[in-house]
Amino acid sequence: MEDLKKYGEKENYCPYYLARHVIKQAQVIVYSYSYILDPGLDPMVPKEDQPECIVVFDEAHNIDDQCVEAYKIELNRPLLENAARNADTIKKKMDQLKEVDKNRLEEEYNKLLKGMTEKGVITEDMKIEDTASEMIKGSLTFYDDINS
């Protein structure tokens, strides 16, 4: 680290970024395993290591305990009750949004139906789905006629 500091001062480089650059060129890297396993430290470790790069974990005899500790979640009643309340709130909001969307779609469908009826494209007893199906069949026939 001292060498990096001296070189950084001499060449006007930040030692941290210089170290990250040097790591990308290394063939063997010695890490404390916590730099790889701890989600909070993960962004500090460059992902651009060379594919042939060998990573040596310092203090690896403790890695099992660290893995368990890093990904352990402790649940308690207040946390679960809060999560349930949040899930209920999200469900209510989603139901409201679905209802708004449903109403908006029905309004647009009715406007479209009314406009098509007024223009004589469909009769009042027809549905748009029936008309769309007929239009698609007609388009395919037209397409087949052109390609013949």
Please give a quick description of this structure.
This protein is mostly helical and 148 residues long. It has helices at 2-11, 15-25, 34-37, 63-70, 77-118, 128-147, and strands at 28-32, 54-58.
Topology:
Layout: H1 2-11, H2 15-25, E1 28-32, H3 34-37, E2 54-58, H4 63-70, H5 77-118, H6 128-147
Parallel strand pairs: 1-2
Name some characteristics of this structure.
single chain, 148 residues, 2 domains, two-stranded parallel ribbon, 6 helices, 7% strand
Task: Give a description of the structure.
Helix content is 64%, strand content 7%. It is mainly alpha-helical and 148 residues long. The chain has two domains: 2-70, no CATH class; 77-147. A two-stranded parallel sheet has the order 1-2. Helix 3 links the parallel strand 1 and strand 2 (54-58). Helix 1 (2-11) crosses helix 2. The N and C termini lie far apart (77 Å).
| Count of beta strands | 2
Distance between the termini: 77 Å
Class computed from helices, strands and strand pairing: mainly alpha
**What is the element string, with H for helices and E for strands?**
HHEHEHHH
- Average pLDDT, rounded to a whole number, is 77
The share of residues in extended strands comes to: 5-15%
Strand order in the largest sheet: 1-2
Overall helicity: 55-70%
Structural domain tally: 2
Strand count, sense and barrel status of the largest sheet are: 2 strands, parallel
Question: How many whole angstroms does the radius of gyration measure?
Answer: 32 Å
Low-confidence runs: none
